[in-house]
Amino acid sequence: MTDPVGKLPSELDQLPDRDPEETAEWAASLDAVTQAAGPHRAAYLMRRSLQHAEGAGLALPKLLETDYVNSIPTAAEPAFDGDLEMESKITAWNRWNAAAMVTRGARYGVGGHIATFASAAWLYETGFNHFFRGKEGDGSGDQLYIQGHASPGIYARAFLDGRISEQQLDHFRQESGGEGLPSYPHPRRLPWLWEFPTVSMGLGPLSAIYQARFNRYLTNRSIKDTSNSHVWAFLGDGEMDEPESTAALALAAREQLDNLTFVINCNLQRLDGPVRANFRVVQELEAQFRGAGWNVVKTLWGNAWDELFQLDTTGALLRRLREVPDAQFQTYATRDVAYIRDHFFGAEPALAELAKLLTDAKIAECFYTSRGGHEARKVYAAYKAAVEHKGAPTVILAQTVKGYTLGKGFESKNANHQMKKLSIDEFKGMRELLGLPIPDSAFEDGLVPYGHPGADSPEVRYLQERRAALGGPAPARRLHASAPLPQPEERTFKALYKGSGKQEMATTMAFVRLVKDLMRDKETGKRWVPIVPDEARTFGMESLFPSAGIYSPLGQTYDPVDRDQLMYYKEAKDGQILNEGITEAGAMADFIAAATSYATHGETMIPFYIFYSMFGWQRTGDQMWQLADQLGKGFIVGATAGRTTLTGEGLQHADGHSHLIAATNPASLNYDPAFAYEVAVIVKDGLRRMYGPDAEDVFYYLTVYNEPKPQPAMPEGVEEGIVKGLYRFKEGTPAKADAPRLQLLASGTAIHWALEAQELLAADWGVTADVWSATSWGELRRDALEADEALLRGEVQVPYVTQALSGAPGPVLAVSDWMRQVPDQISQWVEQDWSSLGTDGFGLSDTRAAARRHFGVDAQSIVVASLAQLVKRGEVPASAVKEARERYGL
Predict the structure, then answer these.
(1) Which stretches of sequence are listed as region Disordered (predicted)?
(2) Dihedral (Cα; 669, 670, 672, 677), 10-degree rounding
């Protein structure tokens, strides 16, 4: 609906106009300019007015998109703090060696990527020479999230610096001999160099945001002053397609993380083609980041473009730059000048007149090579603006040419991501372009040589002096000399050891109660980091709100609605809980930052992340691998676990497979405890293994249940079995000496079905069953695999599960609230006849009893399955199975 003059309704129509006549005069002036000088002039004046208003402090909405030009004009660039000629030589050596390393590796078919670093070399070199703080200075240094495909360039710089040998370069992607280099940033594979694994695209930017946020968390909680640490994330414009890349932009702006800078290499190409073929990714990203509240610095054009902009007195050049799509700009970098004159400058008369003033050499320089990301002074200006900006994170959009300096066969080609080598002639052309003193004789064996100016050369001395001034080598991962965390007092665990008596308690609540007590420990209590994506009250964590507080950098600026209640919603600047809202990905990024703080900051933290079981390994499994690769430690807790304990939620929440997925991760120690005391023993052992004198680079995954049950006291002598994964919980009492017998193995909440089945088997069928608690199918399998490996070395080692069940009479029936494949992991090491029950298939909404009957795992179903196994052995009549099904209504 419109008003009489055809204008759409606006929010301004709801505001009183104190002087309509003045308003009309402003509108008339704008109309006059539009009529006299054209719409472009009118738009220019409006934007100038907005810019002036912003500078004057007027509260106006910002433009989401600016012209396709540099944010910092050449005249406003700060003085360059360094020797540009020397840095150019260093960059040339690094370009050469990065390309040589990948090309030499191609002999063995190991691949590698050349074009990414070639386009981003100055983005890294400028940072290393001027901005990135090392770990040997004050504080923790900066945290660098290196773009995965640029790793050859980082190795090349470490080679120039003397940290990597030529032999190591020649074993890029060939690690089995012990001297090789991993393909991408892998802390577990090269832990002295790489701090963050980043090649799983999207996880780097997400983690960088939460790392910057966690840095502030440490400072606000007075654990460590991280105010001198800056987080730098190097990303590709194609990588920004990943939803994780932009998932937390609002968080970074909301919490004013000015300790964070994204550097997005806008070479306009994905892995196999243009990022935004028919559009402009730089403008899109600018609008996205500005809209989220970030400071945006565009570094698009090199100095060669200055002459063009000065000649553009009509604005025609700016208009043309705004309308040309990215794929066309990619084409300009590969076509001759005549094509550019015709296609770009021929678009309107004003541009054609401008082109007459330009030589072919000038046009070639502008369209082939002159990009802001290729000029150290412009990158330096952008970085300086980023670190000096306060109150918001900064994103730098740096335009480059993918494959820059690698020759016409590489530059801007769609296939350059898959191109793994240069020819000798191409290397010789690159040598001339870079001005490197490498003689033709160095190529005589048919291999491209590595280049190094000498350990005492001016280039190496300069590089090392710059790094020394910035706090030492980078990137680097350092393990700080820190004492093991003292183990909590035994009495902290005894409350769960003694059971709950007649009171019912779910294992989820048992875990939360235990952690709440551990957080009171004088020595280590402050190091616990409780993390929850949302619904903390679902997991019984509301009791932590008033005592530990929910972290917020602003504290609590409002009166909480439940302030008069005992467990009110308390936010605090020094709050301990990270309550992330509905973002499991954000919560996992929190967890990773906390779980690796022992290395990043030399401060050991104990994170525990509790979540709806279904939304852990299934939703954020990639981050679980990132955690493992980054050598993180802590407790991941899948609450409301299993496929039948969360009733009514149906398919979406019915988790019967997380333990199967978790079993694939070598760093994850996976437990499915049945009782509160098992939870206590496992957590106690986890604190020892992860934070004790012989700390291991592992993390714990526990599944806990929301099903309240009376919790028994811990039997004597079961601690070892709990930790190793299996112990006999309740031995059956034979009604007569020759009674049929079997072994029931159960994990998690299934122990209760097995115990009921034990009673039914004895009362209704005269069958004796021993019930075992299988706390960890995964640890039983891990131990058995180690025994198999020992056998291949000629050593005899009996798996623990084989030992534990040795001599146990009858067949073995395993049951859990998980798919049958979960317990079946250990079947080959069980000497007895093996069978299993599980919750295979899709979930459904119903009561627990109905769901268990549906999946065939309830007590009565266990009885029938037990009788079936005994029928096979001839120990009960064949009719028993049918009779039991009829008796129990199956």
Answers:
(1) 1-20
(2) 10
Please check if 70 is assigned to a binding site. Answer: no
Phi, psi dihedral angles at 550 (to 5 degrees): -95, 130
Residue 237 labeled ligand binder: yes
Query: Which residue, among 88, 92, 239, has the nearest Cα to 153 in the 3D structure?
Result: 92
Does the annotation list 670 as a binding residue? no
pLDDT, one tens digit per residue, over 753-766 is 999 999 999 999 99
**Residue 56 contacts residue 415 (beta carbons within 8 Å):** no
Claim to verify: residue 753 and residue 842 sit in the same structural domain: yes
From residue 381, give the alpha-carbon distance in Å to each of 89, 597, 674, 721: 20, 31, 59, 62
pLDDT digits (tens, 9 = 90+) for 163-214: 999 999 999 999 988 889 999 999 999 999 999 999 999 999 999 999 999 9
pLDDT surpasses 60 at 6: no
Find the mean pLDDT for residues 863-867: 98
Model-wide pTM > 0.90: yes
Q: Cα separation of 292 and 809, whole Å?
A: 66
* Same domain as 705, residue 734: no
Per the CB < 8 A criterion, the answer to whether 130 and 383 are in contact is yes
Bridge pairing between strands 709-710 and 504-505: antiparallel
Report CA-CA distances (Å) from 330 to 234, 266, 402: 22, 11, 9
Q: Cβ–Cβ contacts within 10 Å for residue 369, how many?
A: 17
Supply the DSSP string of 334-402, one letter for each residue: TS-HHHHHHHTGGGSHHHHHHHHTS-HHHHHHHHHT-BGGG-HHHHHHHHHHHHH--SS-EEEEEE--T
Confidence of residue 2 (pLDDT cuts 50, 70, 90): very low
List pLDDT tens digits, range 82-140: 999 999 999 999 999 999 999 999 888 887 888 999 999 999 999 999 999 999 988 89
pLDDT at 9: 67
**Strand pairing partners for 783?**
none
**What does 800-830 look like in DSSP terms, one character per residue?**
HHHHHHTT--S-EEEE-SS-TTTGGGGGGG-
Do 201 and 275 belong together in one domain?
yes
* Segments forming the whole domain that contains residue 794: 727-888
194 and 241 fall within a common domain:
yes
